[in-house]
Amino acid sequence: MDGAARTRAAGLGLVLLSSVCFGASGPFGKALIEAGLGPLQAVWLRIAVAALVLVPLAAAVRGRALRTAPAGLRPHARPLIVYGLTGVAGCQACYFVAASRLPVGVAILLEFSGPVIVLGWLRLVRRVPVHRTAAASVATAMAGLALVVQVWTGLSLDPVGLAAGLGAAACQASYFLIVDRLAGRVDPLVITTAGTVVGAAALTAFAAPWALPWGVLPAQVPFAGHTAPGWALVAWIGIVSTVIAYLTGVAGLQRLPAQVGGAICYTEAVAAALIAWAVLGERLTPMQMTGGAIVLTGAYIAQRAAGRAAASASNTRPRSSASARSAASCPASRSTYRSDPFASANPRTATIASDSAASSGRCAARAISHAAAAISPSPHSSAAAPARPAPTSRTSCGRTAPHT
Questions:
Q1: Ordered DSSP codes for 66-124
Q2: Range scoring the smallest mean pLDDT among 118-132, 227-241, 285-299, 338-352
Q3: Chain segment 53-92, per-residue pLDDT in tens
Q4: What distance in Å separates the CA atoms of residue 185 and residue 178, rounded to the nearest whole number?
Q5: 3-class secondary structure for 252-286?
Q6: What is the pLDDT of residue 257?
């Protein structure tokens, strides 16, 4: 196995590990909720524990950049705050509310309807034409979701849980769009740390930690037919299902093309359903399992479309000398990474890593939306800008220039 193959294998393993870690959050969080914690209190504990781990980690890894944080982060303060409120706090809170009232697999599949909102935003707000293949993939996924939630039975699923799951989808879409805006400008570790700090602070008033039943932490909590200390379950969802899940996802996606990593991250839904079945004894009906398979089929269609578009672009790309001339025609791509202490040193890595920051774990929006971006005109290229001489310039600048 050559070096490139080993790199791809390592990336595959890291992204799969990230998906499993994210998928395992529901059963552990649900056990804490059934032991006496409110859904928002469980979410607050999860995000607060992650922030307590990530803040010193970011200080150690990005200490020099963090010392200039007031100046370096000021232009990005607003999107970072919104990211923390929606992409971290809102997404996690809505998901935990849904998971507390619905089977975990159903809750996470509802959350994965975020790509519909993303594509709607691209088409209706940014006025980006959406390719029919991308639309077909979303329609296929939505048909699967209709089977999963059994819409024809109306009240067979808890309406509050259903609304919370759709709210998680909206927050997931917000996460993707904001991270897309910050791509290449702010380091993924800084984005994740800021998101957990803002998210924990925002949920403090709603979770009321001063009224939290702290006795749950040292108590033995029923879990999977046994008992476990409450603090161990909190540590799991805070460290394994948040910190490790995010960091392994970023590290894995640095070793894989974004489209490949996005497709692999769909295993989170499968992992969540399987872990809930094995640990909590939950089950999906045959109709719901069929719907889940259709959802994944829609994701596969999107990834195939993105792969064909990427292969076509690769086949028509000129030699490296032409690419170098193209990169020289994009001055923003050269200056951004030198001047911004929060940007990654490698422009390609920064774009992929920022696109998956805090990921995470929420790869569903990214997967279909990357497909739309790959087979549709870029929203950034549609904005008023000087005309470029050849497609190579657009490709080169699109990879390295900061999003606006």
A1: HTTHHHHHGGGHHHHHHIIIIIIIIHHHHHHHHHHHS-HHHHHHHHTTHHHHHHHHHHH
A2: 338-352
A3: 999 988 888 776 666 555 566 778 888 899 899 988 998 8
A4: 12
A5: HHCCCCHHHHHHHCCHHHHHHHHHHHHHHCCCCCH
A6: 54
Question: How many CB atoms lie under 10 A from the CB of residue 130?
Answer: 16
Q: How far apart are the first and last CA of the chain?
A: 40
In the numeric block, which tokens belong to residue 366? Answer: 């990214």
Is residue 309 over pLDDT 70? no
Residue count of the chain: 404
Structure tokens at 216: 């749950």
Task: Specify whether the CB–CB gap between 337 and 186 falls below 8 A.
Answer: no
- In the block, tokens 């202490």 appear at 341
Q: Which amino acid is at 350?
A: A
Tokens of 395: 């490709």
Q: Hey, what are 337's tokens?
A: 């990474």
**DSSP letters for 356-367:** TTT-TT-HHHHH
Cβ within 8 Å of residue 179, ≥6 positions away: 83, 87, 191, 354, 355, 356, 357, 358
Contacts of 195 (CB under 8 A, 6+ apart): 80, 83, 84, 87, 88, 358
Q: Which residues of 212-251 are buried (b: 16+ CB within 10 A; e: fewer)?
A: beeebbeeebebeeeebebbebbbbbbbbbbbbbbbbbbb
| Segments making up each domain of the chain, as ranges | 18-400
Largest CA distance in the chain: 67
Residue 158's CB is within 10 A of a number of other CB atoms, namely 15
Helix, strand, coil share (%) of the chain residues, nearest 5: 75, 0, 20
